[in-house]
């Protein structure tokens, strides 16, 4: 099968990217290893306005030039965006990829490229499969209501929507109904690729000690989705009751984002700065080292696609506490392969206190979380499932 992946941001560059972009790369490379002809188009970091190309693990990676990153990056964003639009119309993807040979295009829901692919679909005969890994589109509509009909028309025009979890599918339908958004594509399926299993070392369960807890939170500081604030309040409650101190507790919050300053201020306002530390974005290999040294990963959020950090923690056997929201309610069985919490400080402080005093529960969850992850997050197995879905979509008339 001939497949074209497209995302303006990707882990093929040195820029900071999230789990969604890392999953796209893993999909592309696993598909290539399965015998597919795979190209991946993304944005170049070069200041020289030209297309570049290189082979990476069997994938033909094409880097689009960008005025935003290039020699005119000093100009306002709206100007470089307009120049990028013009440049890509003149020297577009079709100049560098034989679209006549492409059977499927896999992309996010970025409106401009998605609409371009849909506009040219009949001409080239490919299928457009859109990845739905979150609800950023909903937040974009809230900020810019004029985009609602554009998203609605595009979502309902794609050949299939790939939801990364069943919980996200249900949540998308629910949120769409709340804003009278007709989300009725002709086809959809639920599947995700998993994570690179070979890069993960098993957590040392013997290091789980009673009366001691090293907590890690590794996710972006978002003002609408992530809830690091709940954890900070939970830490404050535990401190006030004398259950934790610097001798037996620490929490490291890793990430960047618009809400980081507000969370830092909250930490100072609640006088828990000796217990809570914020650190910026870190490379993957450094993050794995931090996870190996932790006792638990906490992931508080209002909703989630499928947090890659949760899967990575489970596969090394690091216990996870996650908000009781989709898709974690489908993945985590309370007290068996992880822990679930309501989104309030009382629930989170109770969970942290319980784990501090019950290392045996952590050891049990550690082993069962790893078994679950190895069964469900194997990229080779999931790639075969993906390709069956891609073939089915491409065969539709």
TrEMBL record:
GO MF annotation terms: glycosyltransferase activity
Q: Which residues cross the membrane?
A: none
Domain Glycosyl transferase family: residue ranges: 210-371
Instruction: Tell me which InterPro entries the record gives.
Output: Glyco_trans_1 (IPR001296)
The keyword Transferase belongs to this UniProt entry's keyword annotation: yes
Keywords assigned by UniProt, alphabetized: Transferase
UniProt name for this protein? Glycosyltransferase
State whether keyword Transferase applies. Answer: yes
Highest taxon of source: Bacteria
Q: Which organism is it from?
A: Spirochaeta africana (strain ATCC 700263 / DSM 8902 / Z-7692)
């Amino acid at each position: 099968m001939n497949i074209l992946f497209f995302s303006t941001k990707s882990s093929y560059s040195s820029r900071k990217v999230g789990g969604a972009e890392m999953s796209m790369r893993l999909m592309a490379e696993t598909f290539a290893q399965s015998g597919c002809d795979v190209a991946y188009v993304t944005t170049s970091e070069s200041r020289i306005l030209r297309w570049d190309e290189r082979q990476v693990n069997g994938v033909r990676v094409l880097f689009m030039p960008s005025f935003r990153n290039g020699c005119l990056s000093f100009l306002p964003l709206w100007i470089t965006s307009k120049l990028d639009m013009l440049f890509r119309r003149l020297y577009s993807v079709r100049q560098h990829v034989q679209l006549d040979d492409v059977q499927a295009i896999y992309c996010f829901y970025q409106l401009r490229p998605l609409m371009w692919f849909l506009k040219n679909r009949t001409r080239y005969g490919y299928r457009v499969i859109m990845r739905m890994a979150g609800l950023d589109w909903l937040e974009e509509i809230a900020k810019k209501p004029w985009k609602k009909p554009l998203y609605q028309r595009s979502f309902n025009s794609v050949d299939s929507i790939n939801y990364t979890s069943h919980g996200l599918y249900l949540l998308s339908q629910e949120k769409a109904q709340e804003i009278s958004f007709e989300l009725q594509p002709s086809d959809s399926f639920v599947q995700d690729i998993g994570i690179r299993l070979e890069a993960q070392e098993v957590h040392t369960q013997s290091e789980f000690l009673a009366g001691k807890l090293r907590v890690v939170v590794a996710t972006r500081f978002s003002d609408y989705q992530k809830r690091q604030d709940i954890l900070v309040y939970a830490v404050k409650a535990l401190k006030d009751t004398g259950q934790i101190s610097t001798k037996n507790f620490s929490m490291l919050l890793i990430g960047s984002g618009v809400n980081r300053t507000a969370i830092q201020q909250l930490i100072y306002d609640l006088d828990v700065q000796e217990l809570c530390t914020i650190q910026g974005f870190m490379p993957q290999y450094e993050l794995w080292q931090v996870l190996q040294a932790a006792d638990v990963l906490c992931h508080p959020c209002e909703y989630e696609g499928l947090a890659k950090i949760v899967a990575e923690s489970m596969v090394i056997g690091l216990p996870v506490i996650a908000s009781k929201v989709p898709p974690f309610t489908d993945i985590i069985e309370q007290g068996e392969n992880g822990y679930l919490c309501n989104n309030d400080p009382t629930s989170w402080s109770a969970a942290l206190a319980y784990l501090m005093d019950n290392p045996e529960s952590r050891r049990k969850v550690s082993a069962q979380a790893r078994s679950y992850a190895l069964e469900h997050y194997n990229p080779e197995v999931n790639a075969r499932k993906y390709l069956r879905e891609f073939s089915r979509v491409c065969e539709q008339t």
